[in-house]
Amino acid sequence: MIPQDLAPAILEGDVIDLLRGLPGDSIHCVVTSPPYWGLRDYGLRPVRWGGKARCEHDWEPTRPPRHREAQGAIGEASRGSAAVDYDASGRGSTCRRCGGWLGQL
């Protein structure tokens, strides 16, 4: 039997908002659904990560590397088939001034 204070709980929502409302040292596992270089769009507002808060951001589109021979990279050949030259334009932006990133996680 699991003690009541250790009972598992499943919380569903925006991980950023939910984690802010939980007490410290109370989380043992967080499972999310990352967009994998923009392959998913959840229709949510983009969030700024890193960079400087007071920067007048100059956002430019972020794209994954286009190295067709790269192992483990987007566009890697699968089972001998030709690699796809994936373009994630519009799937996140990096600030030219401070290096912050704007997009969905």
From TrEMBL:
Q: Does the keyword Transferase apply?
A: yes
InterPro entries the record matches: MeTrfase_CN4_CS, SAM-dependent_MTases_sf
* Organism from which the protein derives: mine drainage metagenome
GO BP annotations listed: DNA restriction-modification system; methylation
Q: What is the lineage of its organism?
A: unclassified sequences, metagenomes, ecological metagenomes
**What EC class is this?**
transferase
**Record-stated family:** Belongs to the N(4)/N(6)-methyltransferase family. N(4) subfamily.
Which reaction is the catalytic activity of this chain? a 2'-deoxycytidine in DNA + S-adenosyl-L-methionine = an N(4)-methyl-2'-deoxycytidine in DNA + S-adenosyl-L-homocysteine + H(+)
E.C. code: 2.1.1.113
Which Gene3D superfamilies does the UniProt record give?
Vaccinia Virus protein VP39
Q: What is the official name of this protein in its record? A: site-specific DNA-methyltransferase (cytosine-N(4)-specific)
Which residues does the annotated region (Disordered) include? 55-92
Q: Which residues form a coiled coil?
A: none
Q: Name one GO molecular function term.
A: site-specific DNA-methyltransferase (cytosine-N4-specific) activity
Compositional bias annotation for Basic and acidic residues: 55-70
Alphabetic keyword roster: Methyltransferase, Restriction system, S-adenosyl-L-methionine, Transferase
